[in-house]
User: Fold these one by one.
Assistant:
Number 1:
Amino acid sequence: MSPIDFVLTVIGYILIGIGAFCQIVAGMGMNRFPNFFVRLHAATIAAIGGSFVPIIGCSLLALSFEELGDVRFFLAGGGFVAAVFLLILAPVGSHLLAKAAYFSKAAVLQPKVVDALEEDIRKGEVHE
Amino acid sequence: MSELYELIPYLVLSITALVSTISVYLAIIEKDLIKAVLYSAIQSTFYALIFYLLMVPDIVLVYIPVSVGLLPAILIIAVKKTEKYEDVTGISKTTSTIILTLVVIFTLISGYLLLLSHAITFAIFPSTDVRTLARWFLNTTLWWNRMFSAMSPESVTAIVWDYRGLDTYFETSVMYLAIIGALALARYIEIPKKVFKEEAMGMSIIGKMATRIMVPMILIVAVSIALHGHLTPGGGFQGGVTAAVTVSLLIFIFSVYFAARFFKINTAILLRIIGLTGIILAATITLIIGFLTGQQAYIFQNQPKVIAQIGLPYEIGGNLISGTLLIFNTSEFLAVVMGFAILFLLLSIPEENVMEVIRGEVE
Amino acid sequence: MIDVRTYLFTVTYVAILVNIVISLYGVFVRPNVIKKIIALSIFGDSIYVYSILIGFRKAEPYPVIPIMTTWQPSSEYISQFASTAVDPVPPALVLTGVVIGLAVMLFLVFLALQTYRLFGTLDIRKIVRMRG
Amino acid sequence: MMIVEYLTFFIPFYLIGIIMYVVRALKGPTIPDTVLSIDCLGYALAALLVIFSVYLQSPLIIACAIVLTLWIYALDVYMSKYLEKKELGE
C-alpha cells in the first residue's frame, strides 16, 4: 500500500466513524426534541454530518481499495456527485419545508419561548 | 468476522422487510390521506433498499423515481384537489373479516405455489443455482461469438431490448396508451395564458436559486444514466424518470407558466412522437437494410444471426455501443421524459379552468 | 440444520407476503378511491419484490450484479460471472412493469379526479348509490 | 479485507439511526414532522447505499444513491407546496 493510499484510507475511516456518531446523535435528537422547529437542528446533523461526511469518506476509501479494479474510480466519482447533490439540496429542502410549515401553521409551536418572526410580521416588516 | 460479513446483508434485508410491513399497515389504516401517502413513501424507500440488497440496481434506478417521487407527487396533487380525509363510518365488521380471511387464504396458497415453482431441485431457498435460461443469458451477454450474443456487458438491458425486445415494445405501448387516455380525459383543457412574475409566483427565492443551479446537473446525470445504459446500470426508462424530476421541479418551484415557456403540451407530444419513431426505426433498421440489399433480416435484430448476416456494429473506434441498444435507450429516454412532462402539465392546470370547461360540456 | 441466512431470507419472504395481504385488504374494504389507488400501488410493489426474490441466488461470499465490469472478458471471467450473478430475467420484466404500473396509476388518478369533478365525492359507496 | 471488516463494525450504527427516524416518521404528531423524518431517512439511506457499495464490492451500483438524493428533495418540495395555500401550479 502506497503512502497516499494509506492516508486516504485513514481519512475515510475517520469520516465514516464521524458519520456513525452523527447518525446516532441525530436519531436521538429526532426522537427527544419537543417540536418541529427544534427537530430541524437534528435534521441538519443527520443530513450533513450523518450522510454527506460518510459518503465523502466512502469515496476516499474506495479510491484506495485496489481489489475493486479500475471500476473504483466510477464508485468514487458517483459518491462525490451524490455528496455534492446532498450538500446543496438538503438545506434547501429543509428551508422550504420549514417556511411552509411556519406560514401554514401545520406544525405546533408548543413549548414556545420567543417567536421573533411573528412579532416582525405583526409590525409589518416581514410578509410572506 | 467473515461469518458476520456474510450475515449483515441478510440481516438488513429482514429488518427492512419488517419495517416496511409496519409502514404498510399504518398506510392502510390511516384516515388522513396525506399521511397515508407519506407512509407509502416510507415503504417505497425500504423496498428500494431491498431491491438494492437483492443486487438489481436497474430496478432501484427506476423504482426510486417512480415510487418515492412521481407517484406521491401525483397522489399529493389529487388529495389537494379532492377530499383530505377518508370517511370510514359504516364499514361492516363481518364483511371485512370475511374478505380478510379469503385474502389470507389466497395469498398463502399462491405464495406456497411460487415457492414450489422456484425450488425445482427442492433445494433450500434461496438456491445456489439459477435457471437454465438465466445461465444462458449470463453466458452470452458479451461473448466472442456475435451470432449468439447481444454484445453488451449489461445483461438486463440486453434482455430488455435485444433478447426480449418484442415483449418490451408492446409493454411500452401500454404505457403510451395510458398517456393517451389521460390526454383524452383532459380534452379541451388548456394551460391558461399568464405571464410569469418572479416575485408573485412560485416558492421562496432560495428554492428558486438552488433549482436554477441543480436543473442542469440533474439533466446531465439523467442523460449519462440513459446513454450509458448498455454499460452501467440504467437505460432509457431510468434516465427518463430521473429527468422527469426537472419538469416537476420547474412546475412546483417556479410555476406552470414558467414551465410552459419550455414545454408547450403540443411540443411535448411532438417530441414524444419523435422518440417513439426512433424506437420503431431502431426495431426495423436491419429489416430496411435487408430490404434494400436483398438479404434476409429480422425485426429487433441487433447482431448478425446464422441465416441473416446483417447486423449493426457493436463498437465504433474502440467504444462499445452494442448496436441498436444505444438507439433504443436514447429514443426511450426522450419518449418517457416527454410523456411525464405532458402528464405533469395536465395535472397542474388550476381547478377553476378545468371546472369551466366541464360546466360548458354538461350544459 | 438451517443456515441463519436462509432463516433471515424466509423472514423477508413472509413479511412481503403479509404486505400483500394487508394491501389487498385495503383494495377491497377501504371506501375512498385514492386510498384504493395507494393500496393497489403497494400491492404491485410487493409483487415486484416477490419476483426479484425468486431470482435471487446464494453465492460465496455474496452474489454480484448481472453486469460485467470488463469489456474484453476471458472465458474464465465469463464462467465465474455466470456462477455468481443473480438472475437477470426478473429485473427485465419488473423494469417495464414498474413504468407501466406508474402510467396506469396516473390514468386511474385522472379518472378519480374526473369522478370528483362530476360527482363531488370520492367515496365509492356514495358514487354507487348515485347511479343505482 | 481490512476495509470491509471496519465497515462491518459501523453498519449497525447507521441501521439504528434509520430505525430511529422511522419511529419519528410513524409517530410524528404533525405532517411536517413526518416529512422531515422521511428526509433524514432518505439521506441516511443514501449514505448506507454508498457504504454497501464498498462493502459488497460492487462499484457499479453507486448511481442509486444519486437518484435517491434527488428524489427525496423532490418529495420535500411537493409537501411544502401542499402545505402552502397557493394552487399547485402557481
Note: The first helix of chain A runs from residue 3 to 32.
Number 2:
Amino acid sequence: MSVLDLDHVFFLLIVNIGIAVLWGNRPFVGKILTLLYILEGLSILTSYHVLLSGAVLSSSLTFTVMQQTVQWQLGVSGGFFALITFMAAGLATWFSSGVWARSYAPIRLLHSYMALNVAAMLLLLASNDFLGLFIAWELVSLVSFLIIAINGGRSAKAAYSYILYAFLGAMAILLALIIIWNATNSFSYVEVRHHWSTMSVNRQLIVVLLLITGFGIKMAILPFHRWQAPAYAYVPAPVAAFLGAISSRMGLFALFIVLLQVVGIDVIQTLWLPFEIINMQTFLLWLAALTLIIPTFIALRQTDARLLLAWHGIGQGGFMLLGILSANALGTAGGIMHVFNHASYQAALFFAVFSVSYRTGTADLDRLGGLVTRMPISFTVMLVGIIGLAGLPPMNGFVSKWLIYKALLDEGMPLLFLAAVIGTLGTILSVYKLIHNTFLGQLRLEHENIKEVPWSMSIPMMILASIVFITGYFPGLLLESIAAMQSTLGISVVDYHLGGVNTGKGNLNMIVVVSTMLMAIGMGALIFFVLGNPRKQVTQWDNYAGGHFLTSDMRYQYSHNFYPGLMRVISPLYRNTIFWLESAIVSTVQFMAHISYALFMQANYLLYLILLVVISLLWVLAV
Amino acid sequence: MVWDQDKEATKDNYASQTIVLDQILHELDTLNIEQKNNQRFRVDVSAEALPALLSLLKGRAGYTQLSAISCVDWEDEFELVYHLWSYETKVLVSAHIRIQYTPAVYVSVYDIYTPAGFFERDIYEMYGVYFEGSPMMEKFILTEWHGPAPMLKSFDTLKYVNDMFNWQEYQPDWLKEIQAKGGKVVS
Amino acid sequence: MSGQHIFLELILMPLLAFMIGLFLVLMMRKVRARIERRVGPPFLQPLWDIIKLYVKKMQISHGVIHDLGIIMLLGGYITAEVFLPVPGMSGFTSQGDIITLIYLMMVPSLGLALGVGQCANPNGSIGISRALTAMLAYDIPFIVVIAGACLYYGTTDLTEIIALQKSQQWGLLSMPILALAGLIAIHAMLGKEPFEIYVAPAEIATGPMVEMSGKYLGSLFVMQCLQIYTITVLYTSLFLGGGYTWFDFIPKLFLVALLPVMITVIFPRYKTDDVLRWLWKWPTGLALLGLAIVVLQG
Amino acid sequence: MRAENYQAVTHPESHEFELNFGPNHPGIEGNYALKVRVNGDKIVAAKADGGYLHRGFEKLMEGRLWIQNIALVPRICVPDPVPMEMCYALGVEDLCQFEVPERANWLRVLQLELSRIAAHLFTFGGHAATVGMYSNMFWGIADRDLILDMFEQMTGGRVYHMYTIPGGVRRDVGVEQLDKISDLLDYLEKRLSDYDNLFFNNKIFIQRARDTGILTPKQALSWGVTGPNLRACGLAFDVRRDDAYLCYDQIDFDIATETAGDALARNLVRRKELAQSIYIVRQVIDYLKKDKSTHIRCQIPNPLAWKVPAGETYTRVESSKGELSFYIVSNGGEKPYRVHVRGPSSMHAVQVLEKLVTGGRLEDVAQIMFSLDACPPEVDR
Amino acid sequence: MKDVIPIQTNNTETIAVSKNSKNIYQQAIDTFSNFCRARSLFVLHYCTGCGAIELPPAMTSRFDMERLGIQPMVTPRQADILLITGYVSIKTLKRVILTYEQMQGPKYVIGICSCTVNGGMYWQSYATAKVLSEYLPVDMYIAGCMPRPEAVLTGLQQLMKKIEKGEANSWENYFKRYDYYLGNQQHLFGDTWHTPTDILEEARHYHLYGAESTGNNTARLIKYTVEHDLTKLDAPLREKDSMTKRGKK
C-alpha cells in the first residue's frame, strides 16, 4: 500500500470543494458529493489494516517554517476520527441531497462549507506537530464559523458568540505554544514529549491548563459551554447533525493527542494545582463530570427538541473526557468509543428531529405529539437513538458507558461513578420527554395529514440507526481500532473480543446480552401474541377521561414542564448558583471579548495588538 | 373574630336589632318588617329597593352571610327570598320581593354577596329567572336538559316521565309469595 | 456449559422468577390486608387475576407502540432474570455484570413508558413522568450502595460477590450502613407508600395503568411479580450472601420483601418533590456514609 | 364529543391541558366532576361540573304528601342523612305549631350526633385515601359500620332511618340499647388514640395537609363557608349554639376551632368535633336513662289527609358538613307548595372548591375536595 | 337473603348468530377461562348514585370484598363489573354508557338499588332514567333502598356462580341487539347521540355481529357521523376515515 494514500484523499477533497462551489445548487450534485465522501471514507478504510498495525498514511505535502518541517500523517487515531467524519458528512449530504434541498435556498453554500469543514478537519486529524495542529485548528474554527452562520438570524448571533470564544481559545493555544517553544525549541509531538520534563512544574501546569482551555472551548467543556447549544440548534438539519456528531469532537481529538500522546497521563497524575488543593487529573475528571451533569440537566429544561439535543451533545462530551482521563484501559477505550457511538446516534437523533420539523414546521416540544402513526420510520430512528443516548442495552451507547463506569469503579472513584450515573439518569428523563412529546400522546388536529419524510431523508437515518445497533451488538468492531490506538499511544490496552471485554472482575459480552434480549423479547412477544385474544385498535378519542367525552379541540396531552416535581427541587439550583456562576463567567468572558474587539477597532490597532502580545510574553517569561 | 358572647349580651342584641332595622325602614320607604321570633325577621320590600336594603344590611348591620336565595313560583309572579344571617347579632332576616312572570329578569346581587352566584344560577336553571350582572349564568346542573325550566308549576313532571320512559314488569318470587298471601299495593 | 443447559436455564429462570414473584405479591397483599384488619385475598388470587386478564375477549390497543412497550417490558425482565444468579443456576451472569443488570432493569421501564405514552392519556403520561422522577430519586442512593458494595468486594461480577460472601461473611454484617440504605432504596423501588407517587389513584387515576386493559394490564401484573423478585434477589445477592440452596434462598427473599410491606401501610404518600428531597437526604446520606466507611477501610 | 359538554375552546398557546377529576375518578367524592386546566402540575383554572346526581328533589317534594316526603328527604345527602330529616321536621313543626315532647328532642339529638360521628369517620377515611393512606380508610369505615349497626337496632334502617318525623320520633330507645351505644362510645374513644397515632399525628400527612388549600377568615366569610370549614379558620360559629334548636341549649359542649384554615386544620376540627359528639351523646344517654317519660311524639293528624297551615319558614340545622337549611312554603294544602334545600356543600363544592384548587397543585385537588367534606348530592339535589 | 333478586332481564330470546361448533380443546379453554373469571372480578370505581355509600363498607375491613377476589379498579379499561349504584340521572347515563362501551368483554352490569329497576323512589322525576336494562344489558339487579353490603356481596357471589357456569352472557346482547339499545338511547338523548367507541366494529371483532345489530337507529347514527364527523371541529377525529375524507388544506 502506498504511503501517499493521504494525497488521494486530499485530492478528492479538493475535487469535492470544487464541485460544491461550482455546481452546488444543481439538484444532482448532493448525490455526487455523497458518493465522493463515501469514496474518501473507503480509501481510508482500504488501508485501515495498515493503520491498525501501527503504520501511518502520510501526505507528500510539507513545508518548513522556523526550522520545523510541517507534514501530514494520518495515524490510527486520526483514521478513526476521519472515518467518523466521512460517515457524518456523507450521510448529512445524502440527507440534504433530495427533496429537502429544493426547499433550502443557500444549498450551494451549505455544500461548499461542508466540504471545507471536512477538509479542514482532515488537516487537523492528520497533523503531526503543534504547528500543523494550530494551523488546522484555526482553519476548522473559521469554517465552523461560516457553517454555523449559514442561516443568519439566531444562528449568526450564535456564530458570532462562537468566534469570540474561538478567538479566546486560539489565544490560549498560541500562548501555550509559545511557552512550549520557549522550553523545548520544537513543535514536534515526539520532541515536546521528550523535553517535557525540562519545563518547570508551574509552567507545565499553565501549559496544560491553557491547552485544555483552548481545545476545550471547541468541545464546550465547562465553563465555556454556553456558546454551543444555540450555535448547533438553529442551523439546518444536515449541518446540525454534522456539527453535533463530529465537529465538536475535534476539540476532544486535540485534547486526546495532547494529554495522552504529548503530555502523558502519568504527568497529569503528578501535576497538582496551586497549594496542592487538588490533583490535576482529579480536577479534570471533576470538570468532565460537571460538563456531563450540568448541560444534561440544562437539556432537561429545554422545550425545543434541537436545543435539547445540542445540550446533550455537550454533556456527552463530558462523558468522553471522563473516560479518557480515567487512565484506565477500559476508560480510555470507553471514551474513544463514545466518540463514535455519540456521532452515530446524535446524527440519527438530529435527523429524526429535523424530519419532524420538516414535516410539521416546528421543533417545539409543546406543539407536537402523536406523530408515531404518521412518521413510523422517524420514530424508530429516534427510538434507537434515544436508547443509545440514554445508554441502555442493546445500543452502542451502553457499551461505551459501561466501559467508563467499570473503569471508574476499578480505579476506585465511586463518586465519579455516581456522577456518571446521575448524568445517565438525567439523560433518560430528558430523552423520554423528547420522544413522548414528539411522537407519543395525542395527535394534534393540524398534524392529521402529515406523511413520512421522503426516502432521501429516511435512508441515511436508517443507516445510522443500524450502525447504532450493530456496533452495540458487536462492539469488538470498534474496540479493535481502539486497542490499536492504545498500543500506539503506549498506554494499557483493553482486552477485547468481538462481543465486548473481559476484565476478570466482571465481564461484558454484548453478543450474549443482546442475543438474550432478543430472545427474551421474542418470548415476550410470544406470550403477548399467542396467549389471549387478538388486539383491537381504537381511536385516540376512545380514552379514559374521568368518564367524560373527549373532543379533538381539547388538549389532552401532557407536555409542558414534564418533570414538575423534579423541577421544584432542582430549579433553585438553576436559577441561583449554577446559572449565576455561568452567567458571571460568560459575561466576563464576553465583556473581555468586547473590550478586545473595541480595542481592535481603534485606528492604531496594531500598536495595541503588539502591546498585548509583548505584555503577555513578558509575563510568561517572568513566571 | 370569635363570636363568643355570653347569652345576656345576645339578648340585648335581639332588642337592638329591631332598632337597627327600624332605622333602615326609615331610609327605605317600601319596607315592611315582621318579627316572627327572637332570631327571625321577615322583611317585605319592593324589588327596586332590595339591592339597597342588602347593602345597608351588610354594611351597617353586620349581615355578612347570605344563607340562601329561595324562589317561589306563584303562577303569576315569582317570589324571591333572600335569607341573611348576622354572625354578631345572631338574627336571620328574610327579605321577600316579588318580580313579574314575564320577562323573568332581575338584578344580580353577586357584587354584594359572592354566594349569590350559586343560588342565582340555580334559580335561572330551575325557574328561568335571569339575573343581570351575575358572572355565573352558564348552566351547571341542567347542562344537558333541553326542556322547559323544570321547577315551574306549569311543568308537569309526571306527564314528561310517562312520555319519555317505559316501566318494566317486576314480579320477583318474594313479591309473588306476598301477593299469594293476599298482599297488594295500596293506592 | 452445553447449549441444552443454557436453553433450559433461559426458560427455567424466568419461570421460577414468575412463580416466586406470584407468592411475593400474595404475601404483600396478605400482610397488607392483615394490618388493615381484613382477611385478604385467597391463595392463588394473583394468578387468577393474571389469567383472567389474559383471557379477556377484547384487548384494547392504542397502537403498535402500545403493544411493543408491553413486549419490551416482558422481554426486559426475562432478560434480567437470566443475568441474576440463583442457587444451582447462574445463567449468563459471567457475561454481564451488576452494572449490566441495573441497566437491563431500566429497559422494562422504558418499554412501559413508551407503551403508556402511546395511549395518549395525560394521566398515564403524568404517571410516567413521576415514575421517572422517582427513578432518579431512588437510583442515586441505590447506585451509591452498589458502588460501595462493588468497591468492597472488588468485583462487579454477581457470582463472585456471592462466593466472596459465602467464604467470608455476609455483606449485611460487613457493610451494615450500606445494607440499611439499600433496604430503603428498594422500598422506594417497589413503589410502595410513601413513595407510591406514580400510581396515586386519587390524583392521576392509577397513572400508567390508566389505559391498560386485558393482557396489557395482565402483563403489568406479571411485571410486578418479576420486579419484586428481581429486586429482592439483587438485594439478597449483595447483602445476604445469595442462596446456598433454594431452602434458605426463598425465605431470605420473603424476608427482604416483608420489611417494606410491613411499614408501608402506616404511611401516606409523599408529594413528588418530597420524595426527591427525602430520598436525597436520608438514604443517600446513609449510603455515602457507608461508602466512606468502605473506602476508609479498604 | 358532545357539544354541550365542552364549549369549543381553542388550543391554548400556553401548553396547558385539561384533566377531568370525575365523575369516574377516585379523587372525587361521589358522582361529581371537577374539570381542571393544568400546566405541569399547577392548576391554572378549575371548573366544577355538577348535575350528575340531580333528581329534582324539590320538584318531587311538591308532588308528594307531607308525610311521604319524610322518606324522600334523607336521600338528599347520603353520608349524613339525619340532619335532613331533622331540618324538614323542624320546618313542618314550625308551620303546624307542634309542641314536641322533650324526650323526642333528646332522642333526635342522639340520632344527630351519632350521624355526625359516622359522617366524620367516613370523611377521615376518604381524606386519608386521597393521600394514599388506605389503612385509615379501612379502619374508619369499618368503625363507622358499628354506628350503622346501632342505627339499625334503633330505627330499623342502616343508612336511611326516617326516624325523625314532624311531631316527634318514630320509636323510643330502650335502656339496653343505650348501654350498647355507651359501650360503642367506649370502644370508639379507645380507637381514637389509634387514629391519632396513625393519621392525625402522622408526620407525612401533616406535611401534606399543612398549608394546603388555605382559607382565610375573610375569604371564608365572603364565600359563604359554614360548618367545620368555617371553624377551621378560627371563626366559632355553630348553628347548634348560635341558632339553637332542639335541646342543644341544655347540652354542654365546646365549639371546636382551629386557626390555620388549611386542610389540616379542617381535619383537626372534625377530629375534635368527633370527641365533642361523643361527649354530647354521653350526656344524652344520661338524660334518657334518667327520664322516665314515654311520650315521644305529639298528636299528628291523619297523615294521608294532612293539611299543613299556610305559611313559610326557614329552618337551619348544623350537619356534619355545615349549615343546612330548608325553606318550606305551604299554601295550606296536602302537599308542600315549595321546599328549597340549601345544602352546605352547595357553597363548598362549587365556588370554594374552584377557588381553592386554582393555583394549587395536581396532588392536592382530591385532598382539598375531601378536606372541604363536599357532598355532591346536596349540590345537585 | 330477601334483598337479592336476580331477575330475568328482557333479553331472554336468543338470537341466531353463526355458531361455530367448539371442539373439546376449545371447551376446556372456555371452562378454565370461566373458572378464572369467576375468581377474579374487578369492580369499576364509579359511584353513580347513593347506593355507592354501601360499597366502602363492602370493600373495607368489615366485609372485605378482596377475600372473594373482588377488587375496586379505577378506569373502565381495567374493570369487569360496572356497578350501577342507584338512580342514574340522564347526564350520568351518558357517562355510564360511555364507560360501559369502554370496558372489555366479558363485562357485567349489576343494577344495585331499586332505582335501577323501575326508577324506585324517583319514579316521577324528570331527571332520572327509569329502566336501566333498556339502555344497557343488565346481568343482575340487587333491589333494596339501599341493599346492605351483605346483599351486594351475595349478589356478586351469585354472579360468580353464573360466570363459572358460563351463563353470564348478557353483555353479548349489547352487540347482538345494538340497534335496540341505541334506539332507546337515541330516544332519550336525541338523534345526535354518539360515543367514541365503534360498537359495530367491536361486534365483528367478538363475532357477535348479527341481524339485529343494525337497523334504523344505527343507520341514523352512521348518517350523523358521516355528515358531522369531518366538518365539525368538535366532532371526534376518526383516524381511519380522516386520511381519505379530510383533504389537504
Note: The longest strand of chain A covers residues 57-65.
Number 3:
Amino acid sequence: MHQVLSSTPEGIFTINVGPQHPATHGVLHLVITLNGETILKIEPHLGYIHRSIEKMCESLTYRQFIYVTSRMDYLSAHINNHACALCVEKGLQVEVPMRAQYIRVIMDELTRLASHELWWGAMAMDVGAFTPFFYAFRERETINEIMEETCGARLTMNYMVPGGVMADIHPQFQQKVKQFIAGYKNKIAEYNELVTGNVIFQNRMKGVGYLSTEDAISYGCSGPVARASGVACDVRKRYPYDVYAQVQFDEIIETTGDSFARYLVRIREMEQSVRIIEQLIDNIPEGDYQAKTKAVLKLPKGEFYQRVETARGELGVYIVSEGGTTPYRIKFRSPGFSNLSALNEMAKGGKIGDLVATMGTLDLVIPDIDR
Amino acid sequence: MLNTISFEAIKTAVQQWLNMHWGPHLAFIAECILIGLLVIVFFAVLGLLLVFMERKVSAVMQIRLGPNRVGPKGWLQTSADTLKLMLKEGLTPDGADKFLFNLAPFLIMIAAMLIMVPIAFARNFQIWDINIGVLYISSIASISVIAILMAGWSSNNKYALLGAMRSGAQIISYELSAGVAVITMVMLTQSLSIQDIILSQQNGWWIFKGHIPAIIAFIIFMIAATAETNRAPFDLAEAESELTAGFHTEYSGMKFALFFLAEYINVFIVCAVAAILFFGGWMPFHIGNWEGFNHIMDYIPSSIWFLGKTFCLIFLIMWFRWTFPRLRIDQLLNLEWKYLLPISLANLLLMTIIVVLKWYL
Amino acid sequence: MDNEALKASLLPLNANLTFEEGGEWVNVFVPYNELKPLLKTLQGEPDLYFNYLFCLTCVDWKTHLTMVYHLTSLKWQHNLVVKAVLNRENPQIETVCDIWKTAEFLEREVYELFGVEFLHHPDLRRLILTDDFKGWPLRKDFEDPVNMIKL
Amino acid sequence: MSIQQYIKNVFNAVKTLLKGMRVTGYYFFHPKEIITQQYPDNRATLKLADRFKGEVVMLHDENNEHACTGCTACELACPNGTIKIITQFDITPDGKKKKALNTFVYHLELCTMCNLCVEACPTGAITMAQNFEHSVYDRKQLTKILNKPGSKIRAGVE
C-alpha cells in the first residue's frame, strides 16, 4: 500500500493552518507542529496580503497617504486615519478645533464598538457557535449606517484629515447615536446571556492561551491582549490625545491572562466605549470642524511619532520628514504584528481547539499584520 | 378501525394484492424490492426536508430569512442543491486509498438504512418487528463510526485523519451512556421489541409515568444522541473552524452529499428512537382512564403522532446546534466519563428500584 | 523622568553617545557595535527600566542605514529613541531579541525589507516575502518594474 | 469534589445552557426581528445616505454648462492617478488665450472613493454620486469621460 501521511516515528507531524482556513480570518498561514492533538510549535508565515503600504506612502503627499491607512486595519479604519492625521498635525503644529476633536473621539469609539462587535461574532463562530455572529452584525450594521450617513462610506471612510474632519456631522448624527446607545446596553446583556455565561464557552476559554505579564511586555503586546495579562497600556489613558484627557472611563485590566480574560476585557471595553460616547455626544461644541491648513502640506525636517489606541492595541505612526511634501520614510507599528508574535507562547501545549480559541481572542486582522 | 386510509390499511391491501396475484415467493421478493425502494425514496425526501428545515430554523434564529428564492418560499432550494451536487465532479485525491475512499460514503448510508428496519412509523407499520429491536438499533448505529474512520484514513489528509480519530473516540464513548439510557427504559418495558415498548405506553408515555429516572434518561439520551450523530455542540469530527471539514474534507459532489444526508438520517433515527422510548412512538397522547379524551386523541392518525414527536425532537437538536459553542475534545470525553456515565448508571439503579417495587403505573 | 533627566542619566552609560536635538523624545545615537550592551543596561537598570520595545525599524538614508529603536518604560512612563548607524554595503548588528522577544519578528521584517543582518538571531528567515525574492524593497534604490507603478 | 458540589455544578451548567437557548428561542418565536434586506428586490425603496461616496460625477446644469476650469487640482490631489484632465486653450472674446477643460477622464477602476478630489476642487465642479452598482462586463467601460459632449464652462466661474 502507498504511504499515508508523513510523520516521525514519535507521531509528530505538521499541518498547515491557512492561508485559507476558517479560523485564520484572512490569509494568515500557520505551520503547526502537532503531537496528536497537542500543539508543540506554531510558526506564522506572513505576507499573503502584504501591499508594502510603507513604500506606497513614500510617494504620496501628507493628505493623500491617510486613505491608504484605512486599508491596514480595516476594522478600525477611523482610528488609523486618526493616528496619521494626529502625526501630521504634530509636525505642522496645527491646533485642531474642539468640535473636530469631539467628533473624532466619538467616531473612534463607534469604530471600536463596531470592531469589537465583529470580533465577538467571529470569535463565537471560532468556538462553534454560529448564531452570535448574526446578532453582532445587526448592531455593527447600525453603526455602519451611522458612519455612512456622516462619512459617506461604511468601512474605509477617509474621514479624518490633517486639521480636523472632512465634513461636519450629519444633522441626524447625534440623535441616531443616542438612539443606538440606548438600545445597545440591553444587547450587551444579551451577549452575556448567550455566550459569556455559557458553561461550554467558559470551559473552552478559561485557562487557555495563558500569557504572563512578563511575556506580554516582552512580546510587545498591546491593547486588550496585554491588558488581559495585567499590563496597563491603554494609550488613551497614558498618552491622551484629543479629548480623551477630559472624558471619564476606566482602563479595563484583568490579571488572569487567559483567553477568557481577553474576552472579558473586550466585552467590558465595549461598555466603556458606550460610556465615552454618552459623555461626548450631547456636548459637541459649536465651531469649525476643520482647522485652516495650507493646500499643500509640508512637514518640517524631523521625526514625528504618534501612537493611538486602536481596537487591537497600540498603533504607532512614525514619520521621518526631509521637509518635502511626501514623507521620507513612514513606519506603522501595527498592534496585530506584535500580538501575533506571542501566539506561539500562548498556544504551545494546548489542543487545536485551544489554538482556535486563542486566535479568536487575539482578534487578528491580517492586513494589519502584513500592511 | 378509525383510520380507513391508514398506513396499516395500505400495507395490508398491497400485501393481499401481491399474494393474490403472484404467489407467496414472488410476493415476498416484490415486497422486499418495494420496501427497499420506499426506504430510498423516504431517505431522499427526508434529507431534503430536514436540510430545508435546518436552514429555515437556523435562519429565523439568526434573524435571517433563509432560502426563499427557489420555488414557493424556497421549498425547492434543497432539491436545487442536490441537483448541483449531482452535477459536480466527484474528486478522488491522488494520494487517497481509492477503494476505501469510495466505499466510505456508501457504508455510512447503508448503516443509516439498516437502522430503519425496526422503527415503527405508524400503528402496525414497521419493516420488521425484531424481538431485539432496541439492541439492534444500538449495535447497527456503531457501524457508522467505521465508515467515518474509513473516510478519514483513506483521504490521506491530516485534517481528515484528526477528525476521524476524534469521531472514533467520541462515538464509542457516547454509545455507552446512550446504551445505558436505553437499558433504563428497557427495564420499564421489560422488552426489547419496539412494538412492545410502544404498546406498553398505552395509558401514558414513559416520560410522564416513568418518574424522575425516565426524565433523566431522556436528557442523557438526547445529549448522547446529539454526540453520536456528530452534531453541534459535539461536531468535533467536522469542527469547521478547527479542521476545515474534518473527516469529509476531501469529499466532493455526490459522495459528500451522502455524508451530509447520512447525518440528517441519523438525526431522524435517533429522534425517532427517543420518540419511541420516551414518547410512545405512534401512540396517541393518552391519560390513564379518561376514556373521552383518549378517544379524541385516537382520531389523529398514528403516523402524524409519530412524525410530530420526532420532528419536535429534531427541532430540539437543531436548537442546540444553533445556540451552543463546540466543546473541546478532552472536555467532550470528560463530559461523558465524568458526568453522563456515572449519572446514567446511578439512574439505572434508581430505575431498577422503581421497577422492582412496581412504583410505575 | 523628563527628557533632561533622562539625558543626564544616559550620559554615564556610554562615552560614545551623541544626542540629536529636536523631536518629542530623547534621540540618542550609539555606535552599532556598542548598541547591544547599552540596550541591555537600559532594560535592566531599575531607574530607567525600558521594558517595552514598541517599535523597531530602519531608515535608508541613501548613504547609510539607521536602525531606530523606540523604547518606553511602562513603569516610569518615559520614552527613548536609540539609533545606530550602519554602513549600507554590509549592514550587520547584534540582535536584541534576547532582551525583548518582540524583536524576533520585527528584526525578521527589517532583515527582509532592508537587508540588515542581525547577528545571533535565532531564526533569521524571510517572514513576508517569498524565499527567492531578490533585493531589499524598502531601500530607496529598489526598483521593481513589474509591480511598482509610477504615477 | 464533594457530591453536593458535583450536583451543583451540573445544575448551574444546565441553567446557563437554558439561558442561551432562551435567547435563540426568543428570536425563533419572534420572526419580526428578522433584519434581512432583500437587496435587488428593494431597489425601489433603497435609500442611500446623501453623502454616500459611490463615484465621481461632474455637475452640469440645464444649459449643459459645468464649473470645471481645468485647473488639475483634483488630478494632483488624487492618490491613485484616477483622474486625468486634458486641457485646451480657448480664445476669449477679448482675444486672450485661456486654459479650459477639454476632457475629464475618470478611471473608476482605480478610484477608492476617498473624496480628496472633491475636497480639492476650488469651484465645486465635481461631486460624489450615490451610485454603487458599478459592475460591467468590460473593464474599458469603467474609464469614463465626465464632461458631457458639447458642454462648456459656466460663465463667471474662474
Note: The CA atoms of residues 120 and 126 of chain B lie 5 Å apart.
